[in-house]
Fold this sequence. Notes:
- The chain has ten helices and five strands, in the order ααβαααβααβαβαβα.
- It is an alpha/beta fold.
- The chain is globular.
- The model has no long low-confidence stretch (mean pLDDT 95).
Amino acid sequence: MKMQIEKRLSVHIDRLLSRYSKLDCIRTAILDAYCVLEECFVRDKKLLIAGNGGSAADSEHIAGELMKQFLISRPVPAEYEERLIAADPVIGAELAENLEQGLMAVPLTAHEALATAYINDVNADSVFAQQLYGYGRSGDVFLGISTSGNSKNILNATVAAKAGGIRVIGLTGANGGRLAELADVAVKVPETETYMIQELHLPIYHCWCMMLEERFFGESSS
């Protein structure tokens, strides 16, 4: 099964590695993480994402690519279009033109009121864990992004996720840290300097988003 998936995805992974040849050493990990993501969305589950600083921005960036069109048009299904128009002929018709199918991705970094209340009232290191506990359901996936692999709030969220039957992908640097030990799949880019790690995280998650979009919204998906 994995070999079939890799063959289908070879155009994307080969393009990624032709541009960022140093990632060739983690090709298998990139594909393994993709398989976890694909299975999540096949089962109509959701992706929960968190990181700090630049990785927080990456969390929201990833959600943006998954929840709307990235490269491929994603019109709503005909059945849903009919229901929109039945609900209101004018508004529904406009919505049918504008809405795009999404893959359910939630950046845990985007809930400022909840996060700041929890940080103020309880504990800053458990803020993402609280959200994993509240939002997460068995079968979901948590993508924890930490350049060091040792961010306490990401590690706490990882433990909360695993306790809830949520698989974990760790996106980190060469050292991996504790995140690499705890994650179901660890994608450790071969850099140790924070900004260099972040520079390699972006093309990897863009590749995941392209592969997912093609899988669920490409011509062969119908």
